[in-house]
Amino acid sequence: MTFILDGGWGTQLQQRGLGLGECPDLWNLSHPEKVKEVADAYIEAGSDIILTNTFGANRLTLAKHDAGHNDLTEQIARVNRAGVRISLEAAKTKNRKVFASVGPTGIVLMMGSTSPDEVYAAFLEQVRAAAAEHPDGIVIETMSDTAEAVLAVKAAKTTGLPVAVTMVFDSGKNKDRTMMGTTPEQAVEQLTAAGADIIGSNCGQGIEGFIPICKRMRAVTKLPLWMKANAGLPEAVGDKTVYHQTPEKFAEAAKELIAAGADYIGGCCGTTPEYIRSLRRNN
Fold first, then answer.
1. CATH of the domain at 237
2. Range of the domain at 246
3. Three-state SS for 230?
4. What are the tens digits of pLDDT across the range 25-60?
């Protein structure tokens, strides 16, 4: 059985007024009704699982945004808990599931400016806050460095919740390596050893590029595979970023991705509720 995930959140929030450079996660507190609109839209489109608006809600990322909160620890807890509550409220209307979103910290570990212990602590703080609202799982997504992803997985596993983790493969001649040079096979090995329950890829390229990555992962693991591709490659049109792949073409390509072994499939940058509706209708 293949589960349908949600699509992109950032552009959906931008359509609802999120400003350029504004922190999306803080909207859980300032504009919860707008965040709920996005969650509701994906539930109505047919998602079996939706994420939360908490991608950047870790200490190292939120510290860059001056939101007038003196107590960063309290802010992190409030943002994550609110994000999970909003998605759970939307999901319960059709008895769907919610995975709390955890994105990268923006720290390059190999540079040595921030220690692995500090990064682990940031993830631990975030996942514990999210877990307090009882989501159905945690997804660590858009990771380029497996060293950081491993720290996030280990932190997330302390919650007792199922943990999915996805890497971005958008580098190398064949777009089959992470920015750090990791192959799909190496990622599977390292993330499995860290304790991940679900492994996969998101962002970085269009859905056609995910098919060989999915096949390579399926060849070396029996774990469920989670795939969220972009709506093709972006193009700058004036001051806007445009994705030209249609929902119908995306859904058609998804059939081959499912055949390659994907167990969870959804969309990332450029995808909207209409893409999820098309996935539901055609797969």
1. 3.20.20.330
2. 3-282
3. strand
4. 999 999 999 999 999 999 999 999 999 999 999 999
